[in-house]
Amino acid sequence: MANQLTKEERQKRRNRRKHNQNEKAKSWLREWADALLFAAVAALIIRTFFFEAYRIPTPSMEKTLMTGDFLIVSKMNYGPRTPMVLGIPFTNIYLPGLVLPWTRIPGFEDIERNDIVVFNYPIDITPIAAKTNYIKRAVGMPGDTLSIDDKQLFVNGNQAQPFPGIQQIYNVQVRDRVRLSAAKVEAAGGTLYQSQNGSSGTYRIEMSKQVAETVQGWPEVTNVSPFVLPDGFNEYDRRGFSFSSGFNNHHHLPSTVVPSKGQTVRLTPENYHVYENIIARYEGNSVQRNGEQFVINGEQTNEYTIQQDYYFMMGDNRDNSEDSRFWGFVPQSHVVGKAGMIYFSWDSERWLPRFNRLLNFIHD
């Protein structure tokens, strides 16, 4: 009998040990699950209200920001937005048809001219927060008067401030029977394209003003001048938006005023295309045309008061950037944050990190 009891006790001990091990395993799993849940919630809060990572996918901001740069974008500077849609965190999946009431929490600064800003691409047909993120330089503030003439940007009548990273395409003429070295151009900081027409001795090079001045001093080069589209080259016919029927990205309708909150504009059949997205899409009004008259929310009127501030954005790679010149103004509601720091940079051509760009703060 004693031996039988001993066996039962041993079995009970084994069962207790197994139970304790299971409890420890469950406790360990709960701790990890709690830790992962806490980390996910903390990351979601940080991403929503404080900082977000962003990758530069295109060359539209070169050489200020390079394709393959990974940025930290601060949402605190201009003020974070409360959630706008209901979806799966850290994905682009959201519940269609449901837009949450939202507001912008005050930041500690306003957008200033020439800030590098991340924003939602305005003309995407999705809720604001689900739109593609773009990054450009805010060259026009609410109320500014802008013009572009022969590729030169003017703000309130003055030529815009230049920046070392801004680049454009130049025509470069070389001496007879001389070929320009692509490797030499690349070493100087430019990108060489093919000659304009065979052996004409004229090349097109994408480069900054500083590089253009260097190239101008080369003995084989006779002249360097900005490449400018002719006045007759019209991009209006192949785009859904334009500031004027004679617009291209090198010439601009003179005296274009960036809309500001509280500004009242007079609508005409000639200028309505400039304000159509603002009135109907970004500010949610119902608009109908009745000859030269406009009917806004059932009321016949030829005036409209702007409900929020807008910005004019341009890429620093002026000849290789889809920006406000082509799709119009950026509403304040679409502003995501301010570009803060490059935390990593990857050169896909050389398949190497750009070590000289790591942990660099972005200066406007």
From TrEMBL:
Catalysed reactions listed for this entry? Cleavage of hydrophobic, N-terminal signal or leader sequences from secreted and periplasmic proteins
> What is its membrane topology?
Single-pass type II membrane protein
Q: What is its EC number?
A: 3.4.21.89
Domain Peptidase S26: where? Answer: 30-168, 270-344
Q: Which GO terms describe its molecular function?
A: signal peptidase activity
Q: Where in the cell is it found?
A: Membrane
Q: What class of enzyme is it?
A: hydrolase
> Any coiled-coil ranges, and where?
none
Q: Which PROSITE patterns match?
A: SPASE_I_2 (PS00760), SPASE_I_3 (PS00761)
One matching Pfam family: Peptidase_S26
The segment annotated Disordered runs over 1-22
Q: Point to the regions of Basic and acidic residues compositional bias.
A: 1-11
- What keyword terms does UniProt attach to this protein? Hydrolase, Membrane, Protease, Transmembrane, Transmembrane helix
Chain segments annotated as transmembrane: 35-54
* Domain of life according to the entry: Bacteria
Indicate the family of this protein.
Belongs to the peptidase S26 family.
Task: Name the chain's protein.
Answer: Signal peptidase I
